[in-house]
Structure formats: C-alpha cells, structure tokens
Amino acid sequence: MSEAYAKAWRDSINQPEHFWSQAAQAVDWMSPPARSFDEAEGWYPGGTLNTCHNCVDRHVAAGRGGVTALAYDSPVTGVVHRYSYAELLDEVGRVAAMLAALGVAKGDRVVLYMPMIPQTVFAMLACARLGAVHSVVFGGFAPLELAKRIDDASPTLLLTASCGIEGARTIPYKPLVDEALRLAHHQVERVVLFQRDTGPVADISSPRDLDWDTLRAATHSDPAPAPVEVASSDPLYILYTSGTTGTPKGVVRDNGGHAVALAWSMANIYDIGAGDVFWAASDVGWVVGHSYIVYAPLLVGATTVLFEGKPIGTPDPGTFWRTIDRHGVKTFFTAPTAIRAVRKEDPDATFLKEIGTGQCRTIFLAGERADPDTIGWLEDKSGLPVIDHWWQTELGWPALASCVALGDLRRKRGSAGFPVPGYEFAVVVDEGGHPVETGQSGAVVIRAPLAPGVFRTLWNNHAGYQKNFATFPGWYETGDAGFIDDEGFVHIMGRTDDIINVAGHRLSTGQMEQIVASVDGVAEGAVIGADDAIKGMIPVAFVVARAGVESEQALHDAVIKAVRSELGAVAALKTCYVVPALPKTRSGKILRNLLRKIVNGEAVAIPPTIDDPAVPDMLLARVRAHAEV
Ligand code: COA
Ligand code: AMP
C-alpha cells in the first residue's frame, strides 16, 4: 500500500474538515466557505462560486487560453476539431447569451436531449454559467422517458439537435422531442434545435421551436453573460437514473462539493493535471459523461476528448487506440463492455499492436463489474495497468479505486479496489449495520455523511433520498452486494435490487416489468437480467398469455416493441418467452432468481416453497429449445 494513499484516507476520515478544506483550495471561490461541512447546509456552507468560471474562464485568465480544452473526435462524421480554452470561453459565452435572451436565469431548469457534439458541452457549461440547472437526457431513451423527466424537472427550455448518429444509423431527434412534449404535462416554452451538417433537416415550423444558429446570430452582439454567483449547495444539474420503480430518480448535484471532489479525483486518482489529456469514452447522458467528459477535466485545465463513436464499427475495433494515439491521451476511462466488444472483433488485438497506446499510462474501467478475464486480456495486450473502479450516479465520482496518483497501483482482478479518501465502506447483513466478517458477502454500505459531490437530495423527492439511509441507520445503502477480502480489496458482485447494467447502461427490470404487464394479452410477466458475454447483462422477459391469445409470436413481438417504444432502444430487450406459467412460491411471489439461473444455464435447486414443482423443468425445456434454434 502506498503511504500517501493510506495517509490521505486516514486524514479524510479522521480530520474531514481539514482534509476537505485543503482540497477546496483547488477551486476559485467568489466567497470562500466558512467551513467544509455542515450537516444541515451541506458541503462548503457560506461558499459561493461559479462552476463554469472554474472550468473555463479562470484558465484563460491564467494565460492558458491557447491550451486545448475540448477535442471533439467524431469518427461517425469524420470531423476532428479542437477548441482551445479561449475558444471554449467564447462558445460558452455565445450559448449563455442565447439562453439569457430567452430568459433563462439562475435556478431555471434546462433539459438537454442532445448527441455527443461540442454544442452539448457548450450548453451544459452555459447553464452552469447562468446558475441554471441542466438535466441531460440520454439519447437512447424513448419519448415517454424524456416526457417523465420533463414533467419532473419542469424546464423552461429544451435544447436538442437534429439527430444523433449511432454507428451507421442516423436517429432524428426532433420527432422524439415532439412526441415527448406531446406526452408531457409540463409545457416547455421553447425548444432550441441545433441543425447538424449531417443527417436530416429537422422540422422547426412550430412557433415553439427556434433554430440554434439563427438565435446565435441574433444574440451575437449581446455581451456574454458574466458567471453568476451561486451558493455551494445550489444545484448544478439534475441527472435522472433508474430506481427500483418506473419513475426515474432525479439525482441533484451541488456546485461546491462537486467542483472540489472532481478536482481532487483528477489529481489523486486519475493523475491528470493542467495540460494533460483525459478521455472518458462514455456519453454525456450518463454520470461518467457529466463528471469525466465535461466537468472534471476542465476543472483542472486538462484537455478532454469528446468522442462520437462506438468502440467497434466506427470504423473498426482500432478506433479506441487511434483516438488515444491521436490526442495523446494520458488516462483512458471506459466500460468493460466496450473492451469485450473490441476483444470479440479483434481477439488478437492486431489493431492495438499496430496503432499502440501512444502516451497512455493507465486505463480505468467502471460502469459494471469488470470480469477478470477482460481485465487480463486488456492488461496483457496493452501492457498498461487496468484499474477497475466503482461508483454510481448518486455519488458522482469514484468511491472505490486504486488511487494511482497517490502511488497506489494495487489491484486484484475481480475487485474494484479500495475506499477512496472520503469514503468509509462496510459490508453488512443485518439492520443493526454490523459489519460481517472478512470475506463474507452482504450489502455494501458507506458511512454517512457522504463525501463532497455526492447527492444530498433527489429532485422533488427528498423522502426517496432518505430511504437510502433507512435500512442501515448511519450508513448509505449502495444497492450493491459484495465483500471485502483479507487484503482490504472490495469486491462488488451485483445488485441487491432489480437494477441491471446492460452494456454499462443502468436500467430497472422492475420498470420493464411494468411495461410488459401493460401489454395487451399479457396475463403476467417477469423480467430478469441474464448474463451476456458482451453486454454483461441483458434483460429477458417471461410472460404468460391471457386466455384467448392466439399467436404467441404476436405477443412476443408486442412485448419487445412495447419496451423499446416506452423505455427506449437502450433497454435492449430482445428475448421474450411466452410460457404457460411462471415459477412462484405458494404465497404467489415470482421466483426471479430461479428464472435467472434457468436462462444462465446454472444448476437449479427447486425451493421447497415452490407452488408447482413442474414449472422449472418446463421453463428449462423452453429456454433450451430457444437456444437450439
Ligand atoms: N441514442 C440512440 N440510440 C442509442 C443510443 C443513443 N445515444 N445509445 C444506444 N442506442 C441504441 C443502439 O443503437 C441500439 O439500438 P438497436 O437495438 O436498434 O441496435 C440499442 O440502443 C442498444 O444499444 P447498446 O446496448 O449500446 O448496444 P450496441 O450493440 O449498439 O453497442 C456496445 C454495444 C458495447 C458497443 C456499446 O453499448 C458501448 O459502447 N457501451 C459502452 C457504454 C458506456 O460507455 N457506458 C458508460 C458507462 S462508463
Ligand atoms: P450508474 O449509476 O449508472 O453509474 O450505475 C451504478 C451501478 O453500476 C453500481 O451501483 C453498480 O451496480 C454498477 N457498477 C458501476 N461500476 C462498477 C464496478 N466497477 N464494478 C461492479 N459494478 C459496478
């Protein structure tokens, strides 16, 4: 263990006030905070700042305006464009002027439904500049999901673009936005659309719609709004994530704690400072994109890569290595699923051997459990340390990792590393919150109060936030299960609830079940997460048809279509078994774990409480027959 890591962790736990006040010096405050933490007021009470100023203006003011801030690399359009910090300031100022002209002000919400283009980053930072609260919705969600987020966030404005580009396919966004606004109860006053050079021309004939470029030209001579002073605890953004119900949870991120935590993580986990190049190959619609494509690299004056492509097919499985090499990426962050996809297409890593990994020093993986085999392949082929690390939308930044920049390179395949300074972990099984013995599995919990940057409420749902602390008083329930081994490595093994990670995308099987249950002809249904060699997990549905349903195939198709159109393509529900019965206990509880074992081909032990012991064999036969087709 590195002494620097051990000391940092001890200090963060034993003297949090001092530790986090030192860390806060990395941020440019408008008024410095009175102290680091207050239970009622949150992180950095009394402190005021502007996150956009910290990400952009101050680097220009420090004479670093010529350094590349944003490297947009889009293999799907063939465009590579670098924006210096001075150019980024100008672009953000223009978008802020556009938003201000439409009346957007401090505290207003702005929903973004946008692809991986620079305008998305400009818009997020422009909102931060005005003290407005952005809520970015991932492009893979269907209109109904967008509508739910619009209704909850009640934005004054929605920003979108003419299309997203998914590999070889173009997805027009405007029809999806129009449909979402039709479904939403909340009326958005204005929609501003960025018309891309590629793809279809969007229809903006409604009086509600405005063209981005026209608005930009009209506000061109307006002075760029100055960064608005906000309180440390004021919201920077709302990011919706899957909970255990059909209603998404609006994770609220503050300004002050977030800026401090992210800056700290760059210097101490990822080893990134001013002038270094960092690339998180994620999407701005997810927390990884918020934290590590947009805010964290810019907070520390580094260069961030905005990659509009897929790990494979855009154009080939060498695209990651080419992008790393082209931009001089020092630290690379991706999801295990992306590496599995690359490996499947290029098992011998011929592209990697030919292109190399340039100046890359470390690869970080997160988003889902990294299987030891994938880590082994990547370390072997790249010759680089591959660090699995763990966190969640709620936390906003890593809680388990090897703090590479503190000299801690310890890693064990299958483990997500050690508690990051600021986080104290335990594995518990009983409500008393008593830690289990080393090596024993249980619920993974983190001691409250949580580190800076971590959510302190859910939008419109503080009671929902408090539930996270209800089962194990004094501890935050992560929803993950795992164990801590005798060397202190924490192993995250899966969820304790109905959330699954599909290709690094967090989804709720409970939500899918609600959709499935509402399909005409379905008497009852269950959705479980099955193991998948590339995506980690994929959802699989089992449904029982209502009496009178004639075509099982038609019912199957209707279920698949319903999940895709109500939740989105990202749900990736492709398999639905129409079966005579579901396995249930005598009290009527569906045995989802048994279903999971059946589809995974694992040994099935029939529980004594089962209502009909013949059902598992029947299901097994169905699943086997399907596999043989
Ligand atoms: N907009 C619109 N549709 C989207 C989308 C977006 N932003 N993202 C995904 N989709 C669609 C896909 O096109 C696909 O549609 P299809 O069923 O019509 O083919 C569907 O949603 C499922 O997408 P996905 O699960 O991503 O599968 P894929 O086969 O397209 O790609 C991977 C597989 C592994 C290459 C890809 O999922 C990947 O790169 N994952 C990494 C994810 C990641 O970085 N997560 C962040 C955590 S760190
Ligand atoms: P999200 O909020 O989308 O970032 O998803 C968070 C969830 O993804 C966690 O609660 C875990 O279940 C899972 N997850 C993220 N990173 C890892 C990891 N390194 N190992 C295991 N599971 C992970």
Q: How is this structure best summarized?
A:
With 629 residues, this protein is an alpha/beta fold. The protein folds into 2 domains: 3-309 and 389-481, ANL, N-terminal domain (Rossmann fold, 3-Layer(aba) Sandwich); 503-628, ANL, C-terminal domain (GMP Synthetase, Chain A, domain 3, 2-Layer Sandwich). The mean pLDDT is 96.
Percentage of residues in strands: 15-25%
Task: Characterize the largest beta sheet: strand count, sense, and whether it forms a barrel.
Answer: 7 strands, mixed
- Poorly predicted regions are none
Q: Order of strands side by side in the largest beta sheet?
A: 5-4-17-16-18-19-20
Number of helices: 19
The CATH homologous superfamily of the largest domain? ANL, N-terminal domain
Average pLDDT level:
96
Would you write up a description of this structure?
The structure is a single chain. 33% of the residues lie in helices and 23% in strands. The mean pLDDT is 96. The chain is an alpha/beta fold and 629 residues long. Helix 14 (372-382) links the parallel strand 19 (362-365) and strand 20. The chain starts with a helix and ends with a helix. It is globular, with a radius of gyration of 24 Å. It has 2 domains: 3-309 and 389-481, ANL, N-terminal domain (Rossmann fold); 503-628, ANL, C-terminal domain (GMP Synthetase, Chain A, domain 3). The strands form 10 sheets. It has a 7-stranded mixed β-sheet, with helices on both faces. The structure holds coenzyme A and adenosine monophosphate. Coenzyme A binds next to strand 9 and helix 12.
